[in-house]
């Protein structure tokens, strides 16, 4: 009986992937793929079918995206703000 990739794909559900670019390494060399316009792809080695579905964010993740970033001394945007040394020196000058 000849190999029929459609018969193989009918037996197994497609794997859901949450990134546009991904790889397959199922008992063969690693192969990288990008989904087509229909959000589907098939591995040329093992005929595994893949489907792209964007990952849904949780309510907490959505709220975090809406918050303004909190400035941190280790973050490069903090340079525009008063440094910790300036703050400490200003406080110490007023104490004595």
Question: What is this entry, summarized?
Answer:
By secondary structure, the protein is α+β, with helices and mostly antiparallel strands. Helices cover 26% and strands 19% of the residues.
3D architecture notes:
- The protein is α+β, with helices and mostly antiparallel strands and about 100 residues long.
- The protein has a domain at about 5-50.
- The chain is about 25% helix and about 20% strand.
- It starts with a helix and ends with a helix.
List its salient traits.
single chain, 96 residues, alpha+beta, 19% strand, three-stranded mixed beta sheet, 3 helices
SSE blueprint:
Layout: H1 5-11, E1 15-17, E2 21-24, E3 31-34, E4 40-42, E5 49-52, H2 59-66, H3 84-93
Parallel strand pairs: 1-5
Antiparallel strand pairs: 2-3, 4-5
The proportion of residues in beta strands is: 15-25%
Helical fraction equals 25-40%
Q: How would you spell out the order of helices and strands?
A: HEEEEEHH
Assembly form of the protein = single chain
Shape: elongated
Give a quick account of the main beta sheet: strands, pairing sense, barrel closure: 3 strands, mixed
Tally of helical runs: 3
Using only C-alpha atoms, the radius of gyration works out to 26 Å
In spatial order, strands of the major sheet run: 1-5-4
Please state the structural category.
Answer: alpha+beta
Span of the ends, CA to CA = 93 Å
Number of strands: 5
Which residue ranges are poorly predicted, with pLDDT under 50 across at least 5 consecutive positions?
Answer: none
pLDDT averaged over residues? 77
């Amino acid at each position: 009986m000849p190999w029929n990739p459609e018969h193989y794909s009918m037996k197994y559900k497609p794997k859901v992937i949450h990134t546009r670019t991904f790889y397959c390494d199922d008992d063969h060399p690693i192969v990288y793929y990008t989904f087509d316009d229909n959000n589907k792809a098939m591995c040329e080695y093992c005929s595994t079918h893949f489907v792209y579905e964007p990952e849904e964010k949780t309510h907490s993740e959505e709220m975090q995206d809406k918050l303004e970033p909190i400035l941190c001394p280790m973050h490069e945007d903090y340079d525009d703000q008063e440094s910790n040394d300036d703050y400490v020196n200003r406080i110490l000058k007023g104490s004595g």
